[in-house]
Automatic annotation (TrEMBL):
The chain crosses the membrane at residues 34-56, 68-88, 94-112, 124-143. It comes from Sphingomonas qomolangmaensis. Keywords: Membrane, Transmembrane, Transmembrane helix. It comes from the Bacteria. This is DMT family transporter. The keyword Hydrolase does not apply. InterPro entries: YdcZ.
Amino acid sequence: MGNLIPILAALLGGIGLAVQPPTNAALGRSVGSVLVAALLSFAIGTAILFAIWLAADRTPLANVRSAKPWMLLGGLYGAYFVAAAAFAAPRLGLASMLTIMIASQLVAALVLDQFGLFGLDRAPVSLARVAGVVFVLVGVVLVRRG
């Protein structure tokens, strides 16, 4: 039961990641720019997070001073993901775009886990983990050909 909430959070996050690219692509077409769509997406997300922080968290923002500069790059990765997904989804199809992104995420995750990068606990690469990623890569090919 202890893992149920993180699993549900991950499932809902996955649904959000599937819905976000076509939503932002439609917004990009409507406003005439994928970058403006990504900017609006982040502005709205920032406003929502700010409101939740005000209502429920209130961790002092001064704590940011203790963060190492590389720890602030998550916004860069997120901005690129949102813009790239809004650009790629209508050109590749949502399923193809997502399988390509998921496959690349899993390959990167294996490397990050293997070496315990970014403060992660080390999780050595195993044959089973590599096989799982290979199946996803095969899925990318099947989805692209489908």
